[in-house]
Amino acid sequence: MILQALYDYYQRKSASEKGSIAPEGWVCRGVDYAIIISDEGLFNNIEQRFTIEKNKIISNQVFLPAIGKQAMKHTNSGKDANLLWDNAGFVLGLGGKGQIKVASFIQTINEWFDVPSLNDRALSAVRGFYNDFDNNRSRVLAFIDSLGFSKDFEKRDPIMAFCLLGDRDYVHTREKVKSAYELKITNVDPNAPRGNCLVTGKANTPIVLNETVIKNVWGGQSSGTNIISFNKRSFESYGKSEKAGENAPVSIEASSAYTSALNYLLSSAQRMQVGDASTIFWADREDPLEDNFTALWGVADTNKDDPDRNANAVNALYKAVEEHGRKPALGEETRFYILGLAAPAKARLSVRFWHTGTVREVGQRIVDHFDYLKIDHSERDREFLPLWLLLESIALLGKRENIPPALASEVIRRILEGLPYPQNLLSLAVQRIRAEQSKKDKNTGKSIPNITYPRAALIKACINSQYNQRETVNVSLDPEEKNEGYRLGRLFAVLERIQEEAHRDPKTKQVTINSTIRDRYYSAASAAPVTVFQTLLRLKNHHLSKLDRPDQRRNFEIQLGSILDGLPTKFKKQLNLEDQGRFAIGYYHQRQDFFKKREKTTETENTQPEIETGAQGELL
Questions:
Q1: Rounded to a whole number, what is the distance in angstroms from the first to the last CA of the chain?
Q2: Partner residues linked to 60 by β-bridges
Q3: pLDDT by residue (tens digit) across 437-480?
Q4: Distance of alpha carbon 124 from alpha carbon 130, whole angstroms
Q5: Can you give the pTM of this predicted structure?
Q6: What is the CB neighbour count within 10 angstroms for residue 573?
Q7: Are 49 and 140 in contact (CB under 8 A)?
Q8: Which of 59, 166, 213, 411 has the fewest CB atoms within 10 Å, measured from its CB?
Q9: Which of 406, 301, 320 is nearest to 359 (CA)?
Q10: Which residues of 139-159 are buried (b: 16+ CB within 10 A; e: fewer)?
Q11: How distant, in Å, are the alpha carbons of 164, 271, 340, 412, 445 from that of 288?
């Protein structure tokens, strides 16, 4: 199914958008330098064909002849040159096995263009260059040194191709040369192995023995990796030993198509990194979701030219889903594919996840995901939380490299399949909250919120998705919620607020203590309430006595009473993981509600002390 979908995508792109994907027998790769030669084959000049952006080399991407696996990855033999282009080792004989490589380069030209009727002056010039190779090579190396290119050649093995003096395009693009090459690749060796292609279903068709490698998969070899390969006898079929390609017969045509499609997608904007999975996506016909899919997950929200792309893409998807039914806003029949690839074995690819559905189904699942995440937050916070921010919020030290490798791809898979979020996602969020209960700002020494907007949203999504209901946990404060964990979280937030008000300077309106009960008691209160709440309720009497305004004390007492009314007479010894998550949501909702009350009316502002706010719009 995966290879068939990639094969179909290749057919669509090559048919409808000529030039966007390499045709059969060609590969899209970057050329770094062009060697300019005269009609007589004499070296004339060398041109840099790459640019440097932010200290990164951006090579000039062109279509190059792909006569075998070496188009993406060479063996160690030095005898597998490419046709009319290659790295400096093959073109100029630099580095190890230089003589063998140059001999292979010359032999390849002669084998592929051994046609008496082919009369092209550029091809003759290339042959002339190698007839006087030693002199031409000396001139090229001297020129490279004079232009300051030597360091680049020492650091890497740049890709080189030939141009005839006066031409801008390369020799392999000239009409006669190109036609002769394409004619030859259609004439299959009559002795080549044949079989029934597992991708197209064609019978008795030439089978590929060595597939083109796949590049740009995170964690894979820079030289490329294989998606289908056999490297041990135990993997081979009976009677097919040492005939790797015949163990999983795929036609040369199909192999060229799906490997070209994979390499194209992995180097395009239809790619994003999800944990350790290099994720690509496409539709079976042109659809806006192909352009907006990365923005939906927040991958492109660092784009300075369009900082609101994430929000705009999600809003557009919401609108399309809402309009569906009144008019065909989302494609009913258009299939959408998402493929996550990883390279745990470096040289071979592993499928992390594979999802297929209609554009409407995929769009609805993503909308469901953002609905699950909806929770009260500050106006300064982004409306739609990107996946990377959610995962960073539960990672140690807030660093992406500390996110469990397979977690992100598992989250994406479950979202797209409409399944509950992974259970360890809730566990990691609760653990981070407890671990950072007493975290302080290094500059001010003040407490940093441990229940942030992304963490609260993630906990809410985990719980609601478990029950497949959007309102198991509400978006905002729910005074009627009877769950003990949720009520205890609210109670803890009110007790902390009383402590803050008892230590608020009447002149500056600032809280004068750097630590609250959260710094000392949050972990125990959220896991084993019986151990701390009796102490906290006694402590609150001391704090209430320090409040100057009777109406403020009365308001707090009413609030405490309404929360305690819904709690049992005895506190629980232990809260399970889900209730610890509900505790965090109750605390978060209550704190957010304090903030909203302060801003509601002028009358409220006169009766409520000014509250200091911190990061994420949280209350300190």
A1: 53
A2: 31
A3: 988 888 877 888 899 999 999 999 999 998 876 668 899 999 99
A4: 10
A5: 0.76
A6: 10
A7: no
A8: 166
A9: 320
A10: ebbeebeeeebeebbeeebbb
A11: 42, 15, 20, 20, 48
